[in-house]
Amino acid sequence: MLDDVIDAYLETVTEREFDLVLLSLLHRRGFTEVHFTHGGFEFGKDFVAQRVFEGVRYQYCIQSKAGDMGQGEWRAVYPQLDEARLNTLSHPSFDESLRRVGVLLTTGRLKGGATLAAQNYAQQAIQRGEPTLEVWDRDEMRRWLLDDPDAGLRGTDQAGRILRLVAAIEDGKMDQMQLQQECRSLFTGDIQVASICTAVLANSCRRSSRPDLASVLALSLLREALSQSNEGAARLARRLFIAEVAPLLEWLESRTHDSVQLARDLGGVPYVTYPTACLKAAELCALYLLLQEPEAASSAGIGAKVLTNLLTLQPGTAHLLSDVWASSLLPIVVAMSRIDKTVTTEYLHRVVDWIADAYDEGFGLASGADGPRAEIDQLFGAPFEHVALEKRRASYAAAVVMDLATALRLSELYEYANNEFLAVGADATVVIGESDAGWWGMKESEARMAPRVVYREAWSPTEPAGPHHQAAPPTASAWDALAIFTLVRDRHCYQTLAVLLEDH
Questions:
Q1: Strand partners, 133
Q2: Could you point out which of 9, 142, 234, 286 has its C-alpha 20 to 30 Å from the C-alpha of 214?
Q3: Would you call 59 helix, strand, or coil by DSSP?
Q4: Between the CA of residue 387 and those of 319, 320, 366, 378, 424, what are the distances in Å?
Q5: To which H or E segment does residue 311 belong?
Q6: For the purposes of burial, counting CB atoms within 10 Å of the CB of 127, is it exposed (0-12), middle (13-18) or buried (19 or more)?
Q7: With contact defined as beta carbons under 8 Å apart, do 217 and 179 qualify?
Q8: 471, 486 in Cβ contact below 8 A?
């Protein structure tokens, strides 16, 4: 069965999605000075790496492709191979004094005339005394992923977990919170193995049309990479996130104008699946925008249009089913504030009214820790005698709204929300990290709960609105911290929000 999983992965993985796996495979197989160099100034080299073979150190120059290659694809790539082998411009660690090897890597196979053309190309290079060419094809990648003694998954502890998770994802029996917990067990400290597992599972999510789960995997890997201070793996985790979310934005572009049609396209029970899907889509869209260059988060572009439509035309984005969904507000409001402050303010007003109604007319919002059924019972169960629940006073959602209003300097919204939450008995509750591990949810002993935060009666431009506003932020970048807060889903740092919202 593991063979089938790897075959399906290699059959469907895209060129840039494979980068994360290739980087990890090269490290696991003993290559050093491994660097991802793809881009506008790659000079034919997607990766450069070094390796010692039979006592000789070689400089590898790798051009990576996805899928099968016929003669037409070969003709398109061989100029890149010339540049990769012969041009010495590259990463600073590139050593032009070493024996050089050019590599054409493909997740498919050479077909038809491409096979003979590649053989002839390599022979001519040797005859001219130039760096030679090696072809690493799908069969070679399959062997590395499955049976290589240094890199292969077969026989490892992760193999069984991957099979179980792929089956759950494809059968629709995996949710975001479950997957986040599974990643904690799957990632055992080796960032290279974690990267390979992440990429294979994310591909399964994409084939199952679950970009929400793929994003959980990418952000789980980001958290693991940051905990190990591995910026290389963190960079590729961010790139994986972008690659998995981009198709979602294209899908949403033509569907965000009509709430009825979007609810039909999403399927499931509209009162449950529609608001959660709207919030997750807006959350991912916002994180995508904030990760791009600053100009990408302007009013132009597909992401900005999708996010604006979701917040103005889809009422579900303001309907939090539980406190778990409050973390979606963090990137949504930060990104939207850079596009349209009026839309942002109106959106937060609707969120305040929704939260207040849940506490005034019902049992309040569930914590979300007990799963979807508990969310539904807590939110919709008040009119039904058979639902025996007590009103929940704690509200992480209230804390999120109050902190966003404070950081955005929305004094009227701040005072309106504060009065509404006090009137209905929604007690703002926060978790405060005392270290990066505490903020990331990796060591709960290094985090503490503030069960009832008392905010200032009126917003002040100089005084902290709440005692938790002075808590030291994580050491990661603001985007990384924000993204991981949406992964953990029960905490955030006010100082991070203040940095992201500064001058906006």
A1: 102
A2: 142
A3: strand
A4: 21, 20, 14, 9, 21
A5: helix 302-313
A6: exposed
A7: yes
A8: no
Q: What is the Cα–Cα distance from 15 to 133, expressed in whole angstroms?
A: 20
**Beta-strand runs (E) in 74-131:** 99-106
Question: pLDDT truncated to tens, each residue of the chain (504 aa)?
Answer: 899 999 999 999 988 889 889 999 999 999 999 998 887 767 889 999 999 999 999 999 999 999 999 999 999 998 999 999 999 988 899 999 999 999 999 999 999 999 999 999 999 999 999 999 999 999 999 999 999 998 899 988 889 999 999 999 999 899 888 899 899 888 877 888 899 999 999 999 999 989 899 999 999 999 999 999 999 889 889 989 998 898 888 888 888 887 777 777 665 545 567 888 899 999 999 999 999 855 444 444 888 999 999 999 999 999 999 999 999 999 999 999 999 999 999 999 999 999 999 999 888 998 877 777 777 777 776 666 656 677 889 999 999 999 999 999 999 999 999 999 999 999 999 999 999 999 999 999 999 999 999 999 999 988 999 999 999 999 999 999 999 999 999 999 999 999 999 866
Q: Transcribe 138-191 into DSSP letters.
A: HHHHHHHHHT-TTT--TTSHHHHHHHHHHHHHHTT---HHHHHHHHHHH--S-H
Query: Cα–Cα distance between 67 and 137 in angstroms, integer?
Result: 9
Q: Are 270 and 278 in contact (CB under 8 A)?
A: no
DSSP state of 476: S
Look at residues 157, 372, 133, 127 and name the one whose alpha carbon lies nearest to residue 269: 372
Amino acid 410 reads: L
User: By C-alpha distance, which of 473, 22, 442 is closest to 232?
Assistant: 22
- Strands (E) in 210-338, as ranges, are none
Burial class of residue 156, CB neighbours in 10 A (0-12, 13-18, 19+): middle
CA–CA dist 60, 31 (Å, integer): 9
Full 3-state SS string of 269-291: CHHHHHHHHHHHHHHHHHHHHHH
